[in-house]
Design goal:
The structure holds two protein chains of two kinds. Chain A is mainly β. Helices cover 0% and strands 51% of the residues of chain A. Chain A has no helices and twelve strands. In chain A, strand 10 and strand 11 form a beta hairpin. The interface between A and B is medium-sized, with 24 and 25 residues.
């Protein structure tokens, strides 16, 4: 069974500081991995995904994530936070060959001016 | 705009009632997924349809059902509503296997 753990339900960073949102997964077979962002009163938007190939994945809005199989992790980073990054971020997994997503509990990112 | 349309945006109803949520997928997408987002359960996968047929089932209650019509739009039916069913219900669509899922803006259901 798939499961996703996001450490830290709330993360605050100063504008311009590094953003690090943690995600660990539990799966018998390495799954496909995703990060989604949800702005207030909106649906989810895909930031980036890992399926195969290069383990460092670059996404939209300057975000990137690295798949580390040995650590079963897929942490999301951005070198310099912007006020517009304030939102809720969800890590998700899907089994290879399937599209239904299993989500973590989300991390609310606050950016302090 | 993701291209996925959900109606209505908001719905307020009483306990014991039945409601229908509607989703129109992106043009060309054959798969539709329903998710529930609540404060206590987080984001949960409910059910998937592919080209009119049920493809996968998640944590969907027996009081809930869904279908996908020949024009590929989907409806999620929630019956005998309870206070705990209050949540944001999202629809997503994909074109194929392991392709990006595009989410609608959700229907916020409030059961009073």
């Amino acid at each position: 069974a798939q499961s996703v753990t996001q450490l830290g339900s709330h993360v605050s960073v100063s504008e311009g500081a590094l953003v690090l949102l943690r995600c660990n997964y539990s799966s018998s077979v390495p799954p496909y991995l995703f990060w989604y962002v949800q702005y207030p009163n909106q649906g989810l938007q895909l930031l980036l995904k890992y399926t195969t190939g290069a383990t460092l994945v670059k996404g939209i809005n300057g975000f990137e994530a690295e798949f580390k199989k040995s650590e079963t992790s897929f942490h999301l980073t951005k070198p310099s936070a912007h006020m517009s990054d304030a939102a809720e971020y969800f890590c998700a997994v899907s089994e290879r060959g399937a599209n239904n997503l299993f989500f973590g509990t989300g991390t609310r990112l606050t950016v302090i001016p | 705009d993701s291209g996925v349309t959900q109606t209505p945006k908001h719905l307020i109803t009483a306990t014991g009632q039945r409601v229908t949520l509607r989703c129109s997928p992106r043009s060309g997408d054959l798969s539709v997924y329903w998710y529930q987002q609540s404060l206590d359960q987080g984001l949960q996968f409910l059910i998937q349809y592919y080209n009119g047929e049920e493809r996968a089932k998640g944590n969907i209650l027996e009081r809930f059902s869904a279908q996908q019509f020949p024009d590929l739009h989907s409806e999620l039916n929630l019956s005998s509503l309870e206070l705990g069913d209050s949540a944001l219900y999202f629809c997503a669509s994909t074109q194929g296997v392991n392709t990006e899922a595009f989410f609608g803006q959700g229907t916020r259901l409030t059961v009073v």
